[in-house]
């Protein structure tokens, strides 16, 4: 297989673009895709301080590498989820990546912030692990961005993540989620701007980039995600893509083009009606989702009450 | 995972094919196994029931595309690219 651009030996085949690239031309293609997303969706500028949520996986570490190459001001933030060896490896690889490149990284532990690991939280709250993880990440990422003086929060979600999420949201007609499925969510009532600069690139493209750049990332899957719905939706999307290359991209970007028509800005958006009694962040209830979760996890056995705010060390 | 003894017509015949094995390292599970040697990456992936879009195929520290030939004497790494599980929604309450 030859590179479409220079005719030398290809290292990756990209059926949805009917293209194949050598290492050098693939690098140029990938950087251009990220640059295009950042500009088209007005994600951030050179003046912004970008907090990058870094898990230790291929996407977030590669994104950090790319944003540094493009000259953006980044700060890394890693949340240790307390999932045994998986989290130990994730934290080690993230710390090593930052140290080798002399990048600023802040590490926090979910056990310290939420009162228990993702496994503990899942057990106590009876939520699926991915849900407990998501609630904690949303709160702690937002808090970290404010703490470290960042103007925007970037995550490593790729095209496969976004297309599979879109499929799940449409299958269940999750209007609230569909309305907000946007690669660039503006700052809103205490919530910092959130962006996804990898939304044009697939998992395979990000893994290829990480391999090419020698990025040492966590290859194994999170042990908590073995039955995650999102993995099933990805499998379904990949089956469709195999039969009809380009469908995944057309599905996702077709939705983005129509999103405002489906969910027009009404201008009557009301801010969250409460200030959380515990963390004092804007909230849709007297105590926000994360603090309720934390209170449950740290409550003495048998105590079902959530009315008494508690603090953890 | 299947271990077919014959290959598809489009793959070139390999002498003593049934006796020739190739070592495969599954990077996600850490398992090493031996499979019937196929000359083409696409044939090996078909045997392993893997979609080329969901894995990297690495041999001799180089990425291989589906149409490339495998060296029977060198181990092949199969590295899945799929990640997921996060349910970070973008909904109003839990953005």
What can be said about this structure in brief?
The complex is a heterodimer of chains A (313) and B (95). By secondary structure, chain A is α/β, with parallel strands linked by helices.
> Would you list the SSEs of chain B in sequence order as H and E?
EEHEEE
Number of helices of chain A: 12
Q: Give the averaged pLDDT of chain B, no decimals.
A: 79
Architecture of the largest domain in chain A, according to CATH?
A: 3-Layer(aba) Sandwich
Q: What percent of residues of chain B are in strands?
A: 25-35%
Helix content, binned percent of chain B:
under 10%
What Rg of chain B, in angstroms, do the CA atoms define?
Answer: 17 Å
CATH class of the largest domain in chain A: Alpha Beta
Q: Shape of chain B from CA axes?
A: globular
Q: What order do the SSEs of chain A take from the amino end to the carboxyl end, as H and E?
A: EEHEHEHEHHHEHHEEHHHEEH
Contiguous runs where pLDDT drops below 50 for at least 5 residues of chain A: 307-313
Instruction: Tell me the structural class of chain A.
Output: alpha/beta
> Approximately how much helix is present in the residues of chain A?
40-55%
Distance between the first and last residues' Cα of chain B: 40 Å
As laid out across the biggest beta sheet of chain A, the strand order is 5-4-3-6-8-7
Structural class per helix/strand content of chain B? mainly beta
Write down the overall mean pLDDT of chain A. 92
């Amino acid at each position: 297989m030859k590179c479409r651009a220079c005719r030398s030996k290809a290292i990756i085949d990209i059926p949805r673009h009917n293209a194949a690239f050598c290492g050098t031309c693939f690098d140029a293609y990938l950087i251009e895709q990220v640059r295009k997303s950042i500009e088209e969706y007005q994600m951030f500028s050179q003046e912004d301080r970008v907090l990058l949520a870094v898990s230790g996986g291929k996407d977030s570490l590669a994104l950090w590498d790319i944003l540094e190459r493009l000259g953006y001001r980044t700060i890394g933030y890693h949340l240790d989820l307390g999932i045994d060896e998986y989290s130990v490896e994730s934290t080690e690889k993230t710390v090593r990546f930052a140290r080798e490149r002399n990048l600023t990284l802040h590490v926090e532990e979910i056990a310290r912030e939420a009162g228990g690991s993702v496994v503990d939280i899942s057990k106590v709250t009876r939520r699926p692990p991915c849900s407990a993880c998501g609630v904690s990440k949303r709160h702690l990422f937002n808090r970290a961005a404010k703490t470290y003086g960042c103007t925007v929060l970037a995550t490593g979600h790729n095209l496969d993540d976004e297309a599979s999420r879109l499929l799940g949201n449409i299958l269940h007609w999750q209007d609230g989620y569909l309305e907000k499925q946007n690669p660039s969510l503006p700052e809103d009532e205490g919530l910092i701007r959130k962006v996804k600069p990898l939304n044009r690139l697939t998992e395979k493209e990000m893994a290829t980039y990480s391999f090419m750049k020698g990025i040492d990332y966590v290859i194994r899957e999170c042990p908590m995600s073995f039955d995650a719905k999102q993995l099933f939706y990805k499998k379904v999307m990949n089956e469709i893509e195999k039969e009809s290359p380009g469908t995944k991209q057309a599905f996702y970007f077709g939705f983005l083009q129509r999103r405002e028509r489906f969910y027009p800005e009404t201008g009557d958006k009301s801010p969250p009606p409460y200030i959380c009694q515990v963390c004092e962040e804007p909230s849709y209830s007297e105590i926000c989702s994360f603090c309720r979760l934390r209170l449950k996890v740290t409550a003495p056995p048998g105590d079902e009450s959530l009315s008494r705010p508690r603090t953890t060390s | 995972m299947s271990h077919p003894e014959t290959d598809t017509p489009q793959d070139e015949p390999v002498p003593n094919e049934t006796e020739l094995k190739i070592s495969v390292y599954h990077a996600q599970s850490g398992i090493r196994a031996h499979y019937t040697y196929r000359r083409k990456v696409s044939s090996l992936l078909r045997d392993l029931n893997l979609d080329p879009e969901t894995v990297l195929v690495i041999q001799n520290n180089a990425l291989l595309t589906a149409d490339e030939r495998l060296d029977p004497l060198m181990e092949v790494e199969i590295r899945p690219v799929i990640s997921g599980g996060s349910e970070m929604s973008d909904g109003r309450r839990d953005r």
